[in-house]
Write a structure and sequence with these properties.
- It is a single chain.
- The chain has 6 helices and 12 strands.
- With about 220 residues, the chain is an alpha+beta fold.
- The strands form 2 sheets. Strands 1-2-5-4-3-6 form a 6-stranded antiparallel barrel.
- Strand 1 and strand 2 form a beta hairpin.
């Protein structure tokens, strides 16, 4: 589990390809300080397991499913990546709960500067947009952001100067692809409502349904 607060920007130093997999070696300084084999690190929002490390880098394997469903397979040596270590119990949750399991890949449709902020309009598939709501949380390349607006085919987020400077989102341009993870709470609520048995029946009898949640802004229609 992660928070969506990027700790460091790393640099991809190497990628070796298997038939249906890849192995990434990423240069980092801060997050390797207390690293151990088997630790989880979010790389552009994707939860990966550390299989080797030294004082200035770590290595992680990427399976076929992850390559197919995220942007990691598009990385090239020299590319910068957002990095975050897994949340420790008792630590501060400054962003929101992020699992590191990507829901889909979005595309930046528009980049605008508005005073100190950078506004990014991101296109996404309907199955992803369903769980993105105005003023809710979304992780974009592993960065916890608040949703400003939601459209039929896209949504808008705003970057403060700190986020733009200390994550890779500040250098993103129109047309770039990004990993998206929606707030897991919305998916759990949907599962409870649609589940057979006492829990789902009680929620339906109380008048709470997916239409009710959409009407009151908890999910997108």
């Amino acid at each position: 589990m992660f928070t969506g607060l990027v700790e460091e920007i790393g640099v991809l130093r190497g990628m070796s390809r298997g038939r249906h997999s890849a192995r990434l070696t990423i240069e980092a300084i801060k997050i390797v300080d207390d690293l151990q084999l088997g630790d989880s690190i979010a790389v552009n929002g994707v939860c990966l397991t550390v299989v080797a490390f030294d004082r200035s880098s770590f290595t992680a394997d990427v399976m076929a499913e992850t390559l197919d469903k995220t942007t990691l397979g598009l990385l090239k040596p020299g590319d910068r990546v957002n990095l975050e270590r897994a949340l420790r119990l008792g630590g501060r949750l400054g962003g929101h709960l992020v699992t590191g399991h990507i829901d889909g890949v979005g595309r930046i449709l528009r980049r605008q500067e508005h005073d100190i902020a950078i506004l990014l309009t991101i296109g996404a598939a309907p199955e992803v947009l369903r769980y993105i709501v105005k003023k809710g949380s979304v992780a974009v390349d592993g960065t916890s952001l608040t949703v400003v607006e939601v459209g039929e085919e896209d949504f808008l987020v705003s970057l403060i100067p700190h986020t733009a400077r200390f994550t890779i989102l500040g250098s993103k341009r129109t047309g770039d692809l990004v990993n998206l993870e929606t707030d897991i709470l919305g998916r759990y609520v949907e599962r409870f409502i649609n589940s057979p048995g006492q829990v789902g029946d009680r929620l339906k009898k109380s008048g709470i349904s997916m239409d009710f949640l959409a009407e009151h802004g908890y999910i997108s229609k």
